Amino acid sequence: MKIKLFHSKFTPFYLFLISMFLFSLNSWEVSIFSLDEAKNASCAREMLERKDLVVPTFNYELRTDKPPVHYWFMMLAYEIFGVSEFSARFFSAFFGTMTVLITFLFGENFLSRKVGLISAFILLSSVHFTFQFHMAVPDPYLVFFLTSAFYSFYGFYQDRKEIFLYLFFLSMGLAFLTKGLIGLVLPSLIVITFLIIRRDVGFLRNMKLHIGIPIVLGVSLPWYIAVGLETDWLWIKEFIFKHNINRFSDPMEGHRGSFILTYLFMFVGMLPFSIFLLQVIKFVWTERKDPLLLYLSLVVMIYTTFFAISKTKLPNYTVPVYPALSILIGTYLYRLNLGRSKAAYSLLFYVILSILLVWALYTLLGEDKHLFLLKEFSLYFLTLTVGGVFSLYFLFKKEMLKIIISLGLSGILMSVILYTTVLPMIDRESSVRALLQQMDSSRSVGYYKRYNPAFSFYIRKKIEPLNSLEDVKRFIERKDVYILTREEYLQELEGLELKVLGKKKDLFENPISVLLTNKE
């Protein structure tokens, strides 16, 4: 298989530019409308406003959801570029770029340059992977630090270079500081399982735990102690019990699902190349004595199974396995000439699946009375179908490289279309955009029971909580105030001197946001 495009010493530089372009594409034009993005981006803004690196707050109240690494990077971006959608998402794109880059370098170093390139290309072709690194959330940072930890351990295992060992512990410490215990538990479990299967548990003596554990704790523990002292340990209690233990043992915020759902998330997220997953599983089993393939397969299997067991199910939970899986798929595609019949079935399945995706999007948008005018945009997803059709054509011409390029380019082109055309058009229907246009920024704003947190990012001042009708009555005694709430609570507010200024359904969510003001 000949790959000439990046056959030079500048390959990492080219990959950096392409990845950074793709992951930051139009991130400034699409508003902060995701609930998670809004809370994280607003929290970072509030911390910067207070010059506080320790205590996270949302709407100026303690936020215990996540540790601070992504807040710190957002704060840095706000300092450099100003507070904006682009700033909130800038370092997400950067860490996505670095994830692609270290995947290429790892594949190049331990397999071959071509496998490294194919693996990086597979990651860039995943629309879900690109989507994740467009988001102002902690997951992009966690993906990078976990990927770095996974690669660094294997680098030390094979080469015995201490720099890899120190990078392994440093990455685990930063992962722990990014999203909690998951950054320690899963890498440790994967490493120990790998060494047990390899009958090489004695290798742990080489890992200098007397140095490694202080590195992990030295990176992470000072902040955990500081936030504990600042909040009378409330942050620690809520984070450990509510956002770690309870999230694992009980479905949070309605994100429940069956055991198999997590594997489906991984399969869909790694399209188009996950269509070869069954062949890859068979290939890895055949080559299971290869330590690298065994290790990467354990990364994918253990990490995914952990979240399959978890009661809370979210598509972003499996993204940290995408880099390892991309190398497994890339190795398979490079080493083997696909059997025509098996590949034909996989590609044909992909074509049918992509058509069904278009149909499903068209139907769902058509049934949404707020977005039905945008249903034609689902037809853009036929880009994936075209890539599949071309791949089938090249299969019968036995042109393996063109199969890979056709699939990958269609995925990359779909991401470009998504961020330059589809999402900007959908974003015009944002409830936050629509209702903000009717608001005078000088007035006081309160919320009754619940509201879309994206308002906090744009209003940039405290939205006063009104948890009871008595709170509302006292609040509207002032002149010229706004109240944000949801349509489901309007009946409770009947009889009060309030006027509805606007209603709009939140994007990709069920609630309808409502803006109210005092009656004149």
What does this structure look like?
The protein is α/β, with parallel strands linked by helices. The protein has three domains: 11-335, no CATH class; 340-427; 432-518, D-Maltodextrin-Binding Protein, domain 2 (3-Layer(aba) Sandwich). The protein is built from 21 helices and seven strands. Strands 4-3-5-7-6 form a five-stranded mixed beta sheet. A two-stranded antiparallel ribbon has the order 1-2. The longest helix is centred in the last third of the chain and has 28 residues, at 340-367. It starts with 10 loop residues before the first helix and ends with a strand.
Write the layout of secondary structure elements.
Layout: H1 11-24, H2 35-50, E1 57-58, E2 61-62, H3 69-81, H4 85-110, H5 113-125, H6 127-132, H7 139-159, H8 162-179, H9 182-197, H10 209-230, H11 234-249, H12 259-269, H13 277-286, H14 291-309, H15 322-335, H16 340-367, H17 382-396, H18 400-427, H19 431-436, E3 444-448, H20 454-459, E4 464-466, H21 469-475, E5 481-486, E6 498-505, E7 512-518
Parallel strand pairs: 3-4, 3-5
Antiparallel strand pairs: 1-2, 5-7, 6-7
Helix pairs in contact: 1-4, 2-3, 3-4, 4-5, 4-7, 5-15, 5-18, 7-8, 8-9, 8-10, 9-14, 12-14, 14-15, 16-17, 17-18
